[in-house]
Write a structure and sequence with these properties.
This protein is 82% helix and 0% strand. With 130 residues, the protein is mostly helical. The chain has one domain: IL-4 antagonist (De novo design) like domain (Four Helix Bundle (Hemerythrin (Met), subunit A)), CATH 1.20.120. The radius of gyration is 20 Å and the shape is elongated. It starts with 5 loop residues before the first helix and ends with a helix. 22% of the residues are buried. The model has no long low-confidence stretch (mean pLDDT 86).
């Protein structure tokens, strides 16, 4: 028979584990999202200045970072959102190759939005629970 005073301790430990796991997931997603959005912003600056080679170089760095993130994000994030980021990156790659600044900028804004949106959406807060 479980002693009554052990139940609150077990519940407190379970809650602590739950909160720590949520915080850890959020911290990991936020760190990756900041790295990805920083490189996307570098692409924006390169597109605005018309430096297409530099923009493609920053895109390559973004792709490398994204490929690393894609290894563990599926455990933490909705796959549909990851697919949307992949689609945006593919369109962006095409627009950069064709030096289409207006379409490149539109996709960059979408990319930055989705990248920043994911950690916010996955964060452990009452708004996301209810």
């Amino acid at each position: 028979m479980i002693k009554i005073h052990l139940v609150p301790i077990a519940l407190a430990l379970l809650l602590a584990v739950f909160l720590l796991a949520g915080w850890g997931n959020y911290a990991l997603l936020k760190k990756d999202a900041e790295t990805l959005s920083d490189t996307a912003k570098k692409i924006q600056v390169s597109v605005q200045t018309g430096n297409w080679e530099e923009a493609e170089g920053h895109l390559t760095k973004t792709l490398k970072t994204w490929e690393k993130s894609k290894k563990y994000w599926p455990m933490l994030v909705n796959h549909r959102e990851m697919d949307q980021i992949d689609e945006i990156i593919n369109r962006l790659k095409s627009y950069l190759e064709n030096q289409d600044s207006s379409m490149s900028m539109a996709e960059l804004y979408n990319l930055i939005f989705y990248i920043k949106h994911i950690p916010e959406k996955e964060s452990l807060n009452l708004r996301n629970i209810f």
